[in-house]
Model the fold of this input.
Amino acid sequence: MAPTRRVVLAVAATAAAAGSASLAGCKGLAAIGPLPKPTPSVLALEHSIAEEEVLVATYQAALAAAAGHLATGLLAAVLADHRAHLAALRSRLIVPPGSKARLAPALGRQPVALPLPPGRRQIATDLAAAERAAAVRLTGQLLTAPPSLAQLLASIGASEAAHAMLLARLR
Amino acid sequence: MSAPPGTIAALQAALAAEQEASYGYGVIGSHLSGAKFAEATADWVTHERARDSLTAMITDRGAQPRPATVAYQLPVPVASPAQAVVLATVVEHRVAAAYPALVAVPDQALRAFAARRMAACAVAAARWSGHSQAFPGL
Done:
């Protein structure tokens, strides 16, 4: 089986950490100079991940606030969609060992839920606005993203546009 | 103006899906009345407009838009208003699935159009079915 990119990077990083010259000529990543800056698509991915984390945290808070109300079914379904978005986005991001410090600070931070107003109607209004805003940002990011990432971002944005409509209909 | 390889094929595939949706909404509308009929009519117009936009995008790039078929095999049978609503949902899912190829082309204007159409189809499908999807079109 051919080694994956992740394995190659991990091995290279281990060699660099050990400073070992005995590993069959592999001098590690340090031998080719400092790591390049994250590409725009990596930054777009990190931004989308951070945004989905905030939405997941927000729907968890909204579900706790709406417990027992009719909207619980919709909120739970939307939360499940966002968890699926987050998993798909995270699977696209390969973080080389030892490079975490360069990544967006949002990645290492505990996601904070958006503040929710009192009252079911206001909560639905605010969540719909958050969905629309997320969809608009994704539509902007997909214009310059690599093709397969652009497709994923377009689909997630379409899902969020549908969420916004369903939430607006609750009012 | 010549388009990169793949762009015309992606445009033709999206056009075919919009043509099929237009046909489908003719059947859907014939089984609905009142507010649902009005919704179906609005969605039908949306697909007709998208079809016209795609036709122009293809001719602008020096290619020949493929004409619509006279009739299409419906993906689900329709004999009642409830089945018409199911067909509308299926039609929107199918059109959304025709656009990811266009989201992947280099031309940013085409990407933006395709992403807007995916979102519009996801919204229409959710309106008909009452449910969202995590990954519409994929």
